[in-house]
Specification:
Helices cover 33% and strands 6% of the residues. It is mainly alpha-helical and 162 residues long. The chain folds into two domains: 17-81, no CATH class; 87-159, no CATH class. Strands 1-2-3 form a three-stranded antiparallel beta sheet, with no helix packed on it. Helix 2 (41-53) crosses helix 3 (59-69). The longest helix has 13 residues, at 41-53.
């Protein structure tokens, strides 16, 4: 049973493009402001504001922009934005600091995304801080977490994660 490895490899590793914003390439557009899903809401709002500044905006687009500003339209592409690290080493791994105790935290690699265990939203807690170490999450928010999240937190601490 011989396999044509070149053909198999090409099929397996083909690039699968997603629908990302044309200008920022960071967010997937939700289509609330731009029906074609070409731009995310933040970038499309900038385009509309530039047109408004030049007084080239149509009244329907002006109403859409005002609804977005007054939070009548709540964008879904900004809510899913991931927290990213600020510093990258030469090997491609990133790191950041706990916003409460300033302990060094490593990231999830080349994508610069903070690991879920250090993201406050992962634990289901509302906080002004976005990135915290496990100690600070346990000290400040352990009682606010659900039972399942407490169990996961204890498991992470048992494994020795920071």
């Amino acid at each position: 049973m011989t396999r044509n490895w070149k053909k198999y490899r090409k099929q397996k590793h083909q690039f699968k493009g997603g629908s990302y914003c044309v200008s920022c390439q960071q967010k997937k557009p939700c289509g609330l402001l731009d029906e074609e899903k070409k731009y995310c809401c933040a970038c499309y709002r900038k385009i509309l504001e530039e047109l408004e500044w030049d007084r080239l905006l149509v009244s329907s687009a002006q109403q859409l922009l005002n609804n977005y500003r007054w939070r009548v339209i709540i964008c879904e592409c900004l809510g899913g934005e991931k927290v990213r690290v600020k510093y990258i080493s030469s090997d491609g791994s990133g790191w950041t600091y706990c916003e409460r105790c300033e302990k060094t935290i490593s990231s999830a690699g080349h994508h610069r995304v903070v690991k879920n265990r250090n993201d406050v939203r992962f634990w289901g807690v509302e906080s002004e801080w976005k990135i915290l170490c496990l100690e600070c999450i346990g000290k400040g928010f352990y009682k606010e977490m659900s039972g399942g999240r407490r169990k996961v937190w204890r498991e992470y601490r048992r494994r020795g994660y920071v």
